[in-house]
Amino acid sequence: MAKIGKKLWTALLISILIPYGAALVFGGTAAANEGGGYPAEGKRRILLENGGYINLEEYLPGVVAGQIPADYEEETLKAQAIIARTYLVKQMGDDTEIEESSLKLENLEKEQLKAAWGTEKFARLYKKVEDAVKATEGQVITFQEELIDPLFCRASAGMTRQGDELHPYLAPVDSAKDIEIDGFLAIQNWTKEEFAEKLAVLSENEPLSADDVPGCIQIAERDEAGYVEKIQVGNQICSGEQVQYVLGLPSPNFVIEEYEGNVRTVSSGKGHGYGFSQFGANEKAKEGWSAQDLLDYYYKNIVLISE
Fold it and tell me: Do residues 133 and 81 touch, judged by C-beta distance below 8 A?
């Protein structure tokens, strides 16, 4: 399988781990098996840190619950379940089991999900996610007979982004409804001292000072969806994702400007902007789009297969 580019690999990790803030991922330890006999031979399973294991399909509801709001439409949740399963199966490769620690997924118990959702909502929401997983059991996304890198974000900046030559199924598509998500525009204000300190790690040979910003920062290249591809920070050329990370911005689609003697950043969208836009997909699901429709829209020329 072609090696994923460094930039898209970073985006994939962010996509899986923190698509819209702190991820809530339940690894299912309470349901884990301690010995042999289950799952059946040939079935995929996750080896837990406590020494037990859990069938991949049983593990998935908690993963999905941490990646997308559980009150989203049924078809959106089904699509996300297929995305999550594709990621896990691709991580496993030809093996039938994998250590949970190697997945780099945060593991929260059901009690923690109850705290996040509220006890009254927990049973209904967890069942809703569980039903989405069951309805799509075994389904994964392929492109030219290989599993894709299933990038997703909470909301694009209005259009999703073009992948590199190794990821032609990540093509720009209109996702205009994304601008309606709460917090689509995120404005943060910084003193010049704070801003220079944050970005200092990106300027290797010449430390930034408060007097340097924001004048020493120039956006050199954006992609067609408006995301920052290259940005000069002092004497260093950085990626938009690098600046997003060190500043803690919700998206690499941003502007940096001087404002009332300080520095202001204005970000659009939530997440890296590649692949499946959860909010945009959910708006389409409200209009009657199926999970298959949603995946076909946000990933191009894909085929769903059953494991």
Answer: yes
Domain tally for the chain? 2
Q: 112 is written with which tokens?
A: 């923690």
Whether 218 and 286 share a structural domain: no
Would you state the structure tokens that stand for residue 69, as one six-digit string? 């709001």
| Burial category of 202 from C-beta neighbours within 10 Å (exposed 0-12, middle 13-18, buried 19 and up) | buried
Q: Determine the structural domain holding residue 101 and report its residue range.
A: 6-172+273-306
Task: Give the H/E segment covering residue 186.
Answer: strand 185-190
Helix 74-92 to helix 56-67 angle, to the nearest 10 degrees? 120
| Lowest-pLDDT choice from 35-39, 185-189, 261-265, 286-290 | 35-39
Look at residue 1 and tell me if it is in a domain: no
Closest Cα partner for 158 from 253, 79, 250?
253
pTM listed for this prediction? 0.88
Q: Could you report how far apart the first and last alpha carbons of the chain are, in Å?
A: 18
What DSSP state is assigned to residue 3?
A: P
C-alpha gyration radius of the chain: 20
Helix, strand or coil for residue 2?
A: coil
pLDDT tens across 70-125, in order?
999 999 999 999 999 999 999 999 999 999 989 877 656 688 889 999 999 999 99
